[in-house]
Design a protein that fits this description.
CATH architecture of the largest domain: Orthogonal Bundle
Distance between the termini: 70 Å
Low-confidence stretches: 569-593
Largest sheet: 6 strands, mixed
Bound molecules: manganese (II) ion
Number of domains: 6
Shape: globular
Radius of gyration: 31 Å
Number of helices: 29
Mean pLDDT: 81
Amino acid sequence: MAEVLEIKNEEKKLIQSAYRDLLRSIKSKMTDQDKIDLRNAYELAVESHAQQRRKSGEPYIMHPIAVAKICAEEIGLGPTAIVCALLHDVVEDTEVTLEQIRIMFNDKVAKIVDGLTKLDSAYSRNSPQAENFRKVLSTLIEDVRVVLIKMADRLHNMRTLGAMPRHKQLKIAAETSYIYAPLAHRLGLYQFKIEFLDLCMKITDPENYHGIAKKLAQTKRERESYVNQFIEPLKTKIKEELEDINISIYGRPKSIYSIWNKIRTKKVPFEEIYDLFAIRIILDVPSQKEKLLCWQVYSIVTDVHTPIPERLKDWITTPKSNGYESLHTTVIGPKGRYVEVQIRTERMNEIAERGFAAHWKYKGLNKQKDVYERWLDSVRDILEDPQSDAVEFLGDFRANNLFNEEVYVYTPKGDMQILPLGATALDFAFSIHTDLGYHCTSIKVNNKLVPMGYKLKNGDQLQIFTNKNQKPNENWLKMVTTGKAKSKIRSAMKEERRKEGLISREALERKLKNLKVDIESAIELLVKHYKYSSHIDLYYDIATDALCIPDIFKIFKADGNQLVEIEAEKPVNETVEDVVRPPKRVRKKNDLKPRLLINGEPAERFEYTLASCCNPVQGDQIFAFLTANAGLKIHRVNCPNATNLMANYGYRVMKAEWSSTTNSTFVADLKITGVDDGPGVIERLTNQISSNLKLNIRSFSISGNEGYYEGLISLLVTNTDQLNVAIQSLQNLNSVSTVTRLE
Ligand code: MN
């Protein structure tokens, strides 16, 4: 008994000292009310978590206190957020209700805690990551603090992951590197991003992680002496020329993850990597002198050490879209080694390390447009347009909004627009205004007409031409890369399908009315029977003659006020077997399919289609993916969607392979661009394919503008070798500049 009491007292002391530590780490000013709230939050959390322990055995309350400390110390958040961090697991894990929190504190605190609870419950239900991510983003646009506290929560969990079983460690690490690290990058929380990636590597690749850590420790001395050798002459010269300015100069080691990345991508051993550190020069200067003084320091640096001009990066004049401002240059230091130097002010440094969180502090200081608010607007845009497929959404979002660098382009009036690198001219139209995108007919870049899919380059000036009769079509999806443009085009096409289906809807309903059956349940039955994902698709197929009304009523008849199938049908089971049963819908005759094995069985035994995102052909590495309502889809292993599908829905993936003995054909789409050097381009292309290569063309379209042409050819081939030969030989033609296989 006495022993138990002793442990209790020990723990009490531990908790109290952690709390005092937290109080000391708070940098912002607190009112008396703030202090009362904080004390109350602490006591409520201690009391309600009293019976819980972490996997490591320590009292659970140590976790919320640590998260609150990260919020205060490493993100610099204020009292409200610290209160919320202390309470972040209370509603989720204990008897305390949100209403109690609202009464004890206020609406704001209750709202943030609610956001945090919702995020957590989404995870515990094991829903797909894409759905979780959408939830994270929704809370992000409501109150940024929810996501910032969640980041701190995740960071503390990652730091203390050692006590978890291995499979849980791996799952949490995967989620962290997939969602939290990129989001931290996007929010400008660079320190968080770096630590996330390092901690993930420690779990997923411990051998290399510890190997590099050890080598870093062994070379530390040598590195420090080199840094001193580099810094000393700089310090002296800066003191001479800018005497009354406070400047700190130091060498900053790069993260283990980034060093490993370099070893992997550049294929050089650790010993040959010299930029294991960067030199950082931080100036304490008033805001109106920032730019001038940074450049002055730059000129001193390059007087002392020879610069490599093409390595100069000026993110002071044009900050990155996540707010990052800094002047980077690489110079040749002693012993001829390349050294990166980063020059910035205290303010820029705080933004560089704390991003979004620091940015509120300096809001209004700068004339420049608010980068975060602009980004939040674009997030809001995407969220407002909820697509049925969350995985697609996450893919688009990750690709365009998280890691990418950006490209700077201009409107005809000279207003700058920032788009993700790889964005196209059509993306630009959508980024300016949705209507401009919808009705875009042609685009001029620097006064020359370009295809809509033209990839933007820095400094391009764009002019969009519209016609109100123009509307998006499926091909447009291939010509955009931004999430916003994609989701706008998809929803426009959905609307288009709905409109086209209106007449057939009336016809079908008239027929059902005549039969005197309940229309709603009858249509539901048809949607289910023909395996459509929605009513819209049913009407659309009728409108486009893919399904005929008379055919429907060969299979269905009225029975009382219900529509029933003429032959008695087995009850529908939602099992895998059932979903992949051969379809009742008759396949279009021109659906040419090569022989395929799925899970070792002939593919004909399943309902399957070749995915249109990557058009797999014979010889490609493939896999089958069980969709929710369209049977199996065959994707290429290197399909851009493959990682997402496998990461999120691994349990729906099935093995697929081409059977070796076959001579059937498949369709491959090629995009050909080039310069139209007089008449006969079409003839030369078709001649090359039909006469020289003896391949069949399934369809061919070509369009041109001012000498530039773009052709789309669908070829029938039997394997990838044949396709590659075709691509090569087309590329060799004089009038052809690029040939690409469409994914
Ligand atoms: Mn937590």
